[in-house]
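Notes from the 1:1 (GR / supervisor)

We went over the backlog. Supervisor wanted to see one worked example end to end before approving the batch request, so GR pasted a single chain during the call. The sequence is below; no edits were made to it. Supervisor asked that the structure be written out right there so they could see what the output format looks like.
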Amino acid sequence: MSEQKKSKRAERAIARHGDVHATSRIRTLFGILGKALVVVLVSTLTVSGISAYQLSQEMSRNALHVTSLTGEKRVIPPLDGPLNLLLVGSDTRQGAGNSAFGDISSNLADVIILLHIAEDRKSAVGLSFPRDLLVPWPACPSTTGGPGYYAQSLGQINATIANGGAGCTLLTVEQLTGLDIPFLAMVDFNGVIELSNAVGGVEVCVAEEIDDPYTNTYLTKGLHKLQGLQALQFLRTRHGVGDGSDLSRISNQQVYLTSLVRKLKSKDILNNPVALYSLAQTAARNMKLSDTLSDPGVMVAVANALKAIPMNKITFLQLPVVSGLPAPNQGRVKPDYEKAQVLFDLLAADEPMVLGKVENTGPGAV
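Structure output shown during the call:
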C-alpha cells in the first residue's frame, strides 16, 4: 500500500471516530496524561550527576518481570530501531490517607498508552486505550509464583492488572495490536500527584466555584496554584463540578495535567539540575519499569531516542471504539476493529501519523 493511501485511511478512521462524544473526553485525558508520563520518563532516564547511579539502582530494585505471550523471557530489541513502550497508570490510592478519594484497595490500569518511537527518531505516536474497553484477555503469569491466570474471552482492559500485574496489561495490548512491546513503565495515581510537589505546584483555572464536601475541595472561580493534597483533591472532585458524574471531572484533570506538562517542559525545570533531580527522585519512588527497561544502558538508549523528538512531533491518538453496547455492558466500549487495524498496520510499518484538531470540552475547568 502506498504511503499516500495509508495516510488517507488513517485520516478517515480518526475523523469518523471523532463522532463518539460519550468517551472522547476520557480518551483526551489519557493522551494528556500520556504526555506527562512521557516527560517524566524522559526526565528520569536522562538525569545526570553523581546520584544517577543511585536512581538507576532504585529503579532496578522495583523492576517488573515481564514475559512474552508464549511465556518466554523478553528479548531486548535492537535499540537503534523502532521502539514500543507501554505506559500504564494505576489508580491505586494506597498512601493517600483519606478514603474520600475512593477505594484504597483499588488497583486498575486506568491509563494505558502505547508509545511508538520511530526508527528515524523524528516522530513518536502515543495510542491510548480507554479504561472501559472490552477485549479478550490472554493467559497471564502469576506475580506470586502461582500457576497463573487462564485466558478470558472478554474482559475490561483496566482490570487486567489484577491478572498478573501490569505485565498482563502489556500482554493484552500485544494480543490486540499484534505488535511486539518489549518495554513497560508504570506509575501510580499518587505518583502523578507527587509531581506537583516536585515542580513546585501546578496552576489551573477554575471555570466555576467548586464546593465539594466529599473531598473537601473548595475553590473560587479563577486561577489557583495547586500542590500536594490540594492537587489530589482537585483531581478527585466530581460532586463539585458539572452534574456530579465521573465525566464531569474529566475537564479538571485535563486542565491540571496540561498545566503539569507545560511546567515540566519549562526552562525552570529542564535547565535546573536541582529541580530535575527532585523530579527524578519522585519518579524513581513512584514508577516501576520492566526488567527490560531498568538496565541503565537501555534507559539511556530509550531516553536518547525520546530526547531528540519535540513534543509537537509526538502524536497522541485514541483507539477507535464502538459505544452504546447493550446490557450488561452499557457504559463500556469495544474496539472498532476495522478502523483500529489501520492504526496497528501503520505502527507496524513505522509510518508517521498526524492528527487534526482535538476537541476539548467540559464543565469543570478551562
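Supervisor's comment: The first helix runs from residue 3 to 17.
Batch request approved.
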